[in-house]
């Protein structure tokens, strides 16, 4: 099981991915254990649409990427290794830094946020 210090290292690496692609998204939370980005206002849902967030949980760090939830085509571009990290439809869990998977997640985040922006949620 990963220690809190090890999870903090994972959190920092995943947070950098979101920060790199934040663009015009709004930072909705920025604490020691949660960083989240919100897109634009949804009249249908009457709230800002979350774009993505990273959060330290008890035994792992979760990386949520909402465009993956909304786009089956985007999910099809993922490697089987990254797919094994998925929990649910938009969450990836990690206990250690995996440079290969984080690089893939970085590309997936870029593509997903680009789609998100085209839908005018930024």
Summarize the structure.
With 122 residues, this protein is an alpha+beta fold. The chain is 42% helix and 29% strand. It contains 5 helices and 6 strands.
Describe what you observe in this structure.
This protein has a single domain, classed as Aspartate Aminotransferase, domain 1 (Alpha-Beta Complex), CATH 3.90.1150. The chain is 42% helix and 29% strand. The chain is built from 5 helices and 6 strands. β2 and β3 (47-56) form a beta hairpin. The longest helix has 20 residues, at 99-118.
Please name the defining characteristics of this protein.
6-stranded antiparallel sheet, 122 residues, Aspartate Aminotransferase, domain 1
End-to-end gap? 37 Å
Radius of gyration (CA) equals 14 Å
Strand order of the largest sheet: 1-2-3-4-6-5
CATH architecture: Alpha-Beta Complex
Number of strands: 6
Instruction: Please tally the helical runs, counting DSSP H or I stretches of 4 or more residues.
Output: 5
Tell me which oligomeric state these chains represent.
single chain
CATH topology: Aspartate Aminotransferase, domain 1
CATH class: Alpha Beta
Order of helices and strands: HEEEEHHHEEH
The total number of structural domains is 1
Percentage of residues assigned to helices? 40-55%
